[in-house]
Specification:
With 812 residues, the chain is α/β, with parallel strands linked by helices. The protein has 4 domains: 3-193, Beta-Lactamase, CATH 3.30.450.40; 234-252 and 381-461, 3-Layer(bba) Sandwich (Glucose Oxidase, domain 1), CATH 3.50.30; 256-374, Enzyme I, Chain A, domain 2, CATH 1.10.274; 485-811, TIM Barrel. The protein is 48% helix and 15% strand. The protein contains 30 helices and 22 strands. The longest helix is centred in the N-terminal third of the chain and has 29 residues, at 165-193. It is globular.
Amino acid sequence: MNRAKGKSAVKSARRSHGNPARARPVSHGLSVLEDIGAILSSSHDLQESLESIVRVVAERTSTEVCSLYIYEARAHRLTLWATEGLNKATIGKVHMGLEEGLTGLVLERLEPVMVVDALAHPRYKYFPETGEERYHSFLGVPVVERKKPLGVLVVQTLRRRRFGGDELRLMKAIAAQVASIIVQLRLSESLESKEKERNEYRQRMVSAIQQLRAYEKRQDADQPSVEDRPRVSRLVGVPAAPGFGIGRAHVLRPLVSFDQVGELRSDNPSLEWERFQKALRQALGEVDGLKSRMSDRVPEVNSSLFDTHRMMLEDKSFLDKIRGFIDDGFAAETALQFTIDEYVGAFARMTDRYLRERATDVRDIGHRLLRNLLGVEDARELPEEGILVAEELTLSDLAALEPEHLTGIALATGGATSHATILAKSFEIPTVVGVDSLLESVQESDLLIVDGNSGGVYVRPSKDVLAEYERLDREYRAFNRDLESLHDLPAETLDGHRVTLEANIGLLGDLAFANRHGAEGVGLYRTEFPFLTYREFPDEEEQLRLYRRVIAALGPKRLTLRTLDLGADKYPSYLRLAKEENPFLGWRSIRISLELPDLFKVQLRAILRASVHGRVRLLVPMISSLEEVWRTKELLEEVRRELRQAGIGFDEGMPVGIMVEVPSAVMQAEELAREVDFLSLGTNDLIQYLLAVDRNNRKVSPLYEPLHPAVLRAVAATVRAANKAGKPLGICGEMAADPLCALVLIGFGIDQLSMGSFYIPSIKRLVRSIELATAREMAHKVLEMSSAQEIKGYLFGMMKKLGVIELMEIYH
């Protein structure tokens, strides 16, 4: 980054937090991290960023020296890379091994080292050229990436000073941010070292493009017409968002491709650079527009996703590389192509998952710049009743599209928990992901049926299949019109027993559908989505703002906020973790929260502060032992005490509950219930753990059976335990949305059901069609049965007898 801009970012951050000399390092810890975040977000030059960081840390922590040493693995030594307070002429010249000095001791132990009088320590090593003999106190923290040493961040003071626990935690947080910029620095160095291979690479690229073009010509010649193509009966994928849609396919492909470019030359570098800068300005404007549009539509999607694109577009080394190719006589398009391919290749070879995924961002940026260079407009408007077909769907794609034009989405890749899938479900768009042979089977304007309930995609369906789905569509619309008449009526059995029907949500936008379908509140608010999309852990104010918006949209209705449930298939990019052999049994959910108590307390503070604005309950996921409950309650009490001392209001009586979703919690349900205010059954995970079945694995997913006798007996046992402890029990798993299961759950005595809002009208119809006594009799009978087949046969027969079998026909 240029020096003026770097200093400007820091000064701006300082102005917003007052005079740093008077600031207390503990109370202003978050502001220091914000300052550093501002430096990173406006970074153009990594070395300059490091210098800005050590300057901010020294000033804002009231220390006379802050230095950053980077570890060079091949040389097995540390080198001074940036300092504030020591002689700057020694940057790059002071080296030490891990066995030398206090700084080496930090990396040798891979843990912080604090010394009140460094000069008296036996590991102290004197470097006269630095001028550090005046400084006594020393605090060094390791900078690591996935347990690999990257460097050491050091602060020193003139007076003898003992650093407190909060100061140590702050330094650790700063070191974590520094780690990311060191990774970028090393990547940049790696790319620079490959500059000498450029000519050989160009020749390989040109040859590959020529071969690809020849192949495409042969393919075009062999491509059959629509009339000649065989009908595909049904493609199979993973159901991701319920419902079904009929419409013409819109195949989302890149508007431009570098295959169109080739090796173009120019004898006017100035003109080519001017063309590129114009395309760059246009791309920056487009990124800002996407950011604003997505922020309005889905506020949980952090704007930093688009800030990352802007940072890449403004990166000095990226632009210098393109300028270098242009100065060598290449046209702007070719210069861009060579640069993008070098970066993509470098990222793709990385072992770190997060860095590998950056290749997708680089390709996206490259296509955006190329489109602007070629003058191709981005006009990706879908026709009415369109079904989107794509290899994958990025958040940028969703920001550019009009979801109200979509009747379905079919993706060749992706999972049921991807960001795009979560958004599709929020928009109530039927979606199927992971569809085999999708792009090979579908062409533009093909008639499709996307069934988000079964996971099927029909391509050019037969008249019989189309007629059947059109019949279902008519019945579905008529059925919904009938259900709409129930919107303002309570979910009450024929003999007067009231059942509370609430919604499971993950996005603010879900509330519109929850209200439309008559939800009485939110029984499960998944707080993970912002954490998965932000570039770093959302701070307290960011979380509070989001929770308050949800509370405001709910009004007097109850909100159950589940704390962070990360892990398994939901890891944010800033949690750099080694691949686990079995992530569903690994480091996830409350285990992560309790191992990162400082971050967990940030969320607890935000939830407690939000509790004064509405009816809020706190729900803790994946509890497997009493010790986890006790530790959670300890942290919660610490936060309450801190808020009281700070004079910040919160609901002193906010209910605290836990999710019962692992077998050990079922076995200890009564003891666990005594420790909390309520229980919530999370049947999705409970079924997986009880039956040892991964429901996302097609080979074993048929074994995932909610009506398995073992599952029903576990649920019944949990109900008995909750009743004995005198604590309310609800359910927020998918069993609540299945009419067959809901009959049994109500019979067990569960009167709080939370589900996807899409299903609320049908379950309300079910509740209003039965007597509680009948449901209890059914629940008693199924507990005596020994197979899921027997149970399902009995329940189907009862639904026919009760006159509500159409609920199964519509939703299954």
